[in-house]
Protein backbone atom coordinates (compact mmCIF):
# COMPACT_ATOMS: atom_id res chain seq x y z
CA UNK A 1 0.00 0.00 0.00
CA UNK A 2 1.16 3.52 -0.77
CA UNK A 3 1.42 6.03 2.06
CA UNK A 4 2.08 9.20 0.01
CA UNK A 5 -1.21 10.78 1.09
CA UNK A 6 -0.13 10.62 4.76
CA UNK A 7 2.62 13.23 4.24
CA UNK A 8 5.23 11.37 6.26
CA UNK A 9 8.64 12.84 7.04
CA UNK A 10 11.43 11.49 4.80
CA UNK A 11 12.82 9.17 7.49
CA UNK A 12 9.41 8.22 8.93
CA UNK A 13 7.97 4.78 8.16
CA UNK A 14 4.63 3.16 8.96
CA UNK A 15 5.11 0.38 11.51
CA UNK A 16 1.52 -0.76 11.92
CA UNK A 17 -1.80 -0.22 10.17
CA UNK A 18 -4.71 -0.71 12.55
CA UNK A 19 -8.21 -1.42 11.23
CA UNK A 20 -11.48 -2.69 12.60
CA UNK A 21 -12.06 -6.43 12.76
CA UNK A 22 -13.61 -8.04 9.67
CA UNK A 23 -16.50 -9.50 11.70
CA UNK A 24 -17.99 -6.02 12.05
CA UNK A 25 -18.34 -5.53 8.31
CA UNK A 26 -19.53 -9.10 7.74
CA UNK A 27 -22.27 -8.76 10.36
CA UNK A 28 -23.57 -5.55 8.79
CA UNK A 29 -23.40 -7.16 5.33
CA UNK A 30 -25.50 -10.11 6.57
CA UNK A 31 -27.99 -7.63 8.01
CA UNK A 32 -28.29 -5.98 4.60
CA UNK A 33 -28.65 -9.40 2.96
CA UNK A 34 -31.51 -10.20 5.36
CA UNK A 35 -33.15 -6.88 4.46
CA UNK A 36 -32.78 -7.73 0.77
CA UNK A 37 -34.86 -10.93 1.09
CA UNK A 38 -37.39 -9.59 3.58
CA UNK A 39 -39.72 -7.93 0.99
CA UNK A 40 -40.07 -11.26 -0.86
CA UNK A 41 -41.09 -12.97 2.37
CA UNK A 42 -43.62 -10.25 3.20
CA UNK A 43 -45.08 -10.22 -0.31
CA UNK A 44 -45.28 -14.02 -0.48
CA UNK A 45 -46.97 -14.15 2.94
CA UNK A 46 -49.58 -11.61 1.88
CA UNK A 47 -50.14 -13.41 -1.43
CA UNK A 48 -50.64 -16.79 0.29
CA UNK A 49 -52.71 -15.79 3.32
CA UNK A 50 -54.54 -12.67 2.09
CA UNK A 51 -54.57 -12.48 -1.71
CA UNK A 52 -57.71 -10.37 -1.59
CA UNK A 53 -55.71 -7.46 -0.12
CA UNK A 54 -53.46 -7.31 -3.17
CA UNK A 55 -56.33 -7.36 -5.65
CA UNK A 56 -58.36 -4.68 -3.88
CA UNK A 57 -55.64 -2.16 -3.12
CA UNK A 58 -53.46 -2.56 -6.23
CA UNK A 59 -55.30 -2.92 -9.52
CA UNK A 60 -53.22 -4.13 -12.46
CA UNK A 61 -50.04 -6.17 -12.43
CA UNK A 62 -49.05 -6.46 -8.77
CA UNK A 63 -45.80 -8.30 -9.53
CA UNK A 64 -44.58 -5.52 -11.86
CA UNK A 65 -45.27 -2.91 -9.17
CA UNK A 66 -43.58 -5.09 -6.57
CA UNK A 67 -40.49 -5.57 -8.75
CA UNK A 68 -40.24 -1.84 -9.36
CA UNK A 69 -40.29 -0.99 -5.65
CA UNK A 70 -38.09 -3.98 -4.87
CA UNK A 71 -35.50 -2.69 -7.35
CA UNK A 72 -35.54 0.68 -5.60
CA UNK A 73 -35.16 -1.11 -2.26
CA UNK A 74 -32.14 -3.07 -3.56
CA UNK A 75 -30.60 0.13 -4.86
CA UNK A 76 -30.90 1.72 -1.41
CA UNK A 77 -29.38 -1.38 0.19
CA UNK A 78 -26.51 -1.35 -2.32
CA UNK A 79 -25.79 2.31 -1.53
CA UNK A 80 -25.88 1.48 2.19
CA UNK A 81 -23.49 -1.44 1.62
CA UNK A 82 -21.10 0.85 -0.24
CA UNK A 83 -21.26 3.49 2.52
CA UNK A 84 -20.58 0.85 5.20
CA UNK A 85 -17.67 -0.60 3.23
CA UNK A 86 -16.18 2.87 2.76
CA UNK A 87 -16.40 3.61 6.48
CA UNK A 88 -14.96 0.21 7.36
CA UNK A 89 -12.05 0.51 4.93
CA UNK A 90 -11.15 4.15 5.57
CA UNK A 91 -11.31 4.12 9.39
CA UNK A 92 -7.66 3.42 10.16
CA UNK A 93 -4.84 4.25 12.55
CA UNK A 94 -1.29 4.38 11.20
CA UNK A 95 1.42 3.88 13.80
CA UNK A 96 4.67 5.36 12.54
CA UNK A 97 8.07 5.77 14.14
CA UNK A 98 7.18 9.26 15.41
CA UNK A 99 3.40 9.49 15.77
CA UNK A 100 0.00 7.94 15.31
CA UNK A 101 -2.07 9.18 12.39
CA UNK A 102 -5.78 8.69 13.03
CA UNK A 103 -8.13 8.73 10.04
CA UNK A 104 -11.78 8.85 11.09
CA UNK A 105 -14.24 8.45 8.21
CA UNK A 106 -17.42 9.88 9.70
CA UNK A 107 -19.70 9.88 6.65
CA UNK A 108 -19.23 9.28 2.96
CA UNK A 109 -17.55 12.64 2.25
CA UNK A 110 -16.63 13.64 5.81
CA UNK A 111 -13.22 12.62 7.15
CA UNK A 112 -11.10 13.83 10.05
CA UNK A 113 -7.35 13.19 10.20
CA UNK A 114 -5.53 13.67 13.51
CA UNK A 115 -1.90 13.26 14.54
CA UNK A 116 -0.73 12.27 17.99
CA UNK A 117 2.97 12.37 18.80
CA UNK A 118 4.21 9.64 21.10
CA UNK A 119 5.49 12.13 23.67
CA UNK A 120 1.88 13.43 24.05
CA UNK A 121 0.35 10.03 24.82
CA UNK A 122 -0.71 9.74 28.42
CA UNK A 123 -2.65 6.49 28.45
CA UNK A 124 -3.68 3.64 26.15
CA UNK A 125 -6.57 1.53 27.38
CA UNK A 126 -7.93 -1.58 25.71
CA UNK A 127 -11.20 -3.32 26.50
CA UNK A 128 -12.26 -6.75 25.30
CA UNK A 129 -15.91 -7.39 26.14
CA UNK A 130 -17.68 -10.69 25.65
CA UNK A 131 -17.04 -14.20 24.46
CA UNK A 132 -17.06 -13.44 20.74
CA UNK A 133 -14.52 -10.64 21.02
CA UNK A 134 -12.31 -12.81 23.22
CA UNK A 135 -12.30 -15.73 20.78
CA UNK A 136 -11.93 -13.58 17.66
CA UNK A 137 -9.31 -11.32 19.30
CA UNK A 138 -10.86 -7.89 18.89
CA UNK A 139 -11.56 -5.06 21.27
CA UNK A 140 -11.65 -1.30 21.74
CA UNK A 141 -8.69 1.05 22.07
CA UNK A 142 -8.87 4.34 23.95
CA UNK A 143 -5.94 6.71 23.50
CA UNK A 144 -5.69 9.69 25.85
CA UNK A 145 -3.33 12.57 25.23
CA UNK A 146 -1.58 14.81 27.73
CA UNK A 147 -2.53 18.03 25.98
CA UNK A 148 -4.38 21.08 27.28
CA UNK A 149 -7.74 19.80 26.10
CA UNK A 150 -7.00 16.21 27.21
CA UNK A 151 -8.14 14.73 23.89
CA UNK A 152 -9.35 11.13 23.77
CA UNK A 153 -9.32 9.02 20.59
CA UNK A 154 -11.33 5.82 20.17
CA UNK A 155 -11.08 2.98 17.71
CA UNK A 156 -13.71 0.33 18.33
CA UNK A 157 -13.57 -3.37 17.42
CA UNK A 158 -9.87 -3.40 16.54
CA UNK A 159 -8.08 -6.59 15.53
CA UNK A 160 -5.59 -7.74 18.17
CA UNK A 161 -5.77 -4.69 20.48
CA UNK A 162 -3.12 -6.02 22.87
CA UNK A 163 -0.55 -6.16 20.07
CA UNK A 164 -1.47 -2.62 19.03
CA UNK A 165 -1.00 -1.40 22.61
CA UNK A 166 2.40 -3.11 22.82
CA UNK A 167 3.57 -1.46 19.58
CA UNK A 168 2.36 1.96 20.74
CA UNK A 169 4.08 1.62 24.11
CA UNK A 170 7.30 0.32 22.56
CA UNK A 171 7.43 3.35 20.24
CA UNK A 172 6.50 5.58 23.19
CA UNK A 173 9.47 4.17 25.09
CA UNK A 174 11.81 4.62 22.10
CA UNK A 175 10.81 8.29 21.81
CA UNK A 176 11.19 8.72 25.57
CA UNK A 177 14.68 7.18 25.53
CA UNK A 178 15.78 9.55 22.74
CA UNK A 179 14.76 12.60 24.81
CA UNK A 180 16.89 11.57 27.80
Please describe the structure with a list of short key phrases separated by commas or semicolons.
180 residues; 4-stranded antiparallel sheet; 3-stranded antiparallel sheet; 5 helices; alpha+beta
CA(first)-CA(last) distance: 35 Å
Shape: elongated
Overall structural class, as computed from helix and strand content, comes to: alpha+beta
Per DSSP, what share of the residues sits in E-state strands of 2 or more residues?
25-35%
DSSP helical segment count = 5
Order of helices and strands: EHHHEEEEHEEH
Main sheet characteristics: 4 strands, antiparallel
The residue-averaged pLDDT reads: 84
Helix content: 40-55%
Task: Detail the poorly predicted runs.
Answer: none
What is the CA-based Rg, rounded?
Answer: 24 Å
Q: List the strand order in the largest sheet.
A: 1-2-3-4
Amino acid sequence: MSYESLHLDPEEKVILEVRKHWIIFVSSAFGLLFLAFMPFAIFATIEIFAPVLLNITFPGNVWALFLFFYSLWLLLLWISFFAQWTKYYLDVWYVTQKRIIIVDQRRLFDREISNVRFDRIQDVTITVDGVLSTFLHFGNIRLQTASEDNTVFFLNTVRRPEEVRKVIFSQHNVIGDKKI
